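Annotated sample (chain length 280).
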Amino acid sequence: MKSGSIAAACAALVVACLPGVASASPVVAASAARVGSAPVTSAAGAPVAYAVTAAYDVPALEGTDNDTASLVFRSPEAPGTAGGTFDEQSLPVGPLSTGTSWFLDVNRKVGWFDDSVPPAGATAPRSYESTATLSGSGSVDAHVQADYMLEAQGGPQHVWLYLDDATSIAQCPGLRGTGGSGLWVRQPDGVLARVALPLDEPYVVRDVPLRLPQVSMADQNLPQFADISVRTAGPGELVGADGPVAAGWRVDVDSYVIGTNGREDRGHSVLVLGGAACTS
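Output written by the structure step:
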């Protein structure tokens, strides 16, 4: 999406558009179209935009090949656009060998499991867009619009979250917005239920049956649950990219097991489902 059309997107979609907030914090992001790669730092003072198609971070796995997974586009150094329009994408997150990995699907009609499909009422996945642009005048903007489906191995059902038409825009200087068409989240009874889109306050559900994204042998057969929070994200809250003007969807998951002494916490996970950030 070019800079001139961002304001139109705010009017046409269910999008919360806010003025950007200046910040002196450094900007760090994964390089364009790399999955599971280490972050790189932008050149000091240079305008840059980041389109965070998807990002995942498991702090407990730092130092391994599974600590982060991301798909991020960075605006080019010369006027032009990085990224574009794509059919689908899928990122496994967590160690596959444990049999408890999560899968982060972008615009897939069928996920890793045959019964993993968009819920009734969601729009049919179409090509998704993820772009980061530097204009000839030196302004930068980022735009992501996609459908997201999160799956977990283990159990009779796999989909635990679906975000329909997630949209994030950032234009520097001064404009950011986050929106979407619908949100479905697994409930304590195991049902994938549609809930209100949390544009103003986070949506939180606790004690959801959900396999851990990583598990030890001792935890393998214990009951596993999670407290899930879904909210819009701003500056300082994106995984893999950030900037003074930033917007996106963020999912925080606190995993735990039920052991002999009751609840035992097993880590905090963060996912970004579509994000946009830029500096000027």
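Annotation: The two ends are 18 Å apart (CA to CA).
Annotation: The first strand starts at residue 15 and ends at 19.
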